[in-house]
Amino acid sequence: MKTFFDAFISYGRADSKVFATKLHQRLTELGFRIWFDQQDIPLGVDFQNQIDDGIEKSHNFLFIIAPHSVKSAYCLKEIQLAVKLNKRIIPLLHVEPTDCWDKMHPIIEKINWIFFQDNKNDFETSLAGLLQVIHHQSDYVRQHTEILVKALEWSRHQKQTNYLLIGEERKQAQSWLKVRFDDQQPPCVPTDLQCELICESTKNSNNLLTQVLICYADQDKSVMQKIAKTLMRKSFTVWTNKTDIETGTPFQDVINQGIEGADNLVYLISPASIKSDYCQQEITHALDNNKRIIPLLIESTELEGIHPHIRGLQFIDFTTYNDEAKYRIEADKLIKV
Questions:
Q1: Are residues 316 and 239 in the same domain?
Q2: Is there a smaller number of Cβ atoms within 10 Å at the N or the C end of the chain?
Q3: Residues spanned by the domain of 78
Q4: Do 128 and 180 belong together in one domain?
Q5: 165/151 Cα distance (integer angstroms)
Q6: For the domain that residue 304 is a member of, what is the CATH number?
Q7: Is the pTM of this model over 0.85?
């Protein structure tokens, strides 16, 4: 049984040790489980590993703003990991960092702060504001942590099948990934790894049948990965030759099986894919099996070499995929198809 924490406290000792200790004490009195380095690092262990583990297993990341924490290389590491893991970050202003505003992490700068300044703000009033944030969408945030820990464990074990989600746990994760915050800001967002874990778990439960197979040339791998991540974030199961072909298996046979088990084949059209024998074999096999083919034009391409059936289809123009705003518009078109 894994131990999870309601919050991780990141602070600079020189300015905020007394305040951080008080905050930890009050939150603990209120029934929260808080990761605090004065309590949660055993003697004789690698302290950085313990800190990283604490951040991974904490639902919220509380960053106490003060000159020492803003300038601290250790605190910066903690913030960077929290950002990488898409944690809900809650900045608490304790001591105004008047001499080091330029060193403030940009993520901390743009999030609303809760003011806990000594002799300026009433501690209990500020604490009530903090509790309100912690309780907001707490179930969603808790699931984020639980699925994240599972995803990291899966990744650290080379993404082996026996670390995928199964049964009710998988169904709950699928429902979590489909939650949308259309009219409000989400408390946190899924990581790419979480999306991949959930979609791979779904694929595994469906006997490796998928909604989308992506056909592409090796030169277009980065575009394929971007599109695959977008689709998985929207809960689509995706088959690619980078994730679904095990070492030592007959390459073409496995690809053919992937095509046969996919509802749709998304074809990334570029000069490289037009010349690729592998891509042409995949398209031919998809047509032979009456698969729906969705062509995405990712680079300006002479179309004479394309199968006549493909030329007659409506392309989605992804040639501006490096422009994020335009990419999102075209990605929405793909998802609606």
A1: yes
A2: N
A3: 5-136
A4: no
A5: 9
A6: 3.40.50.10140
A7: yes
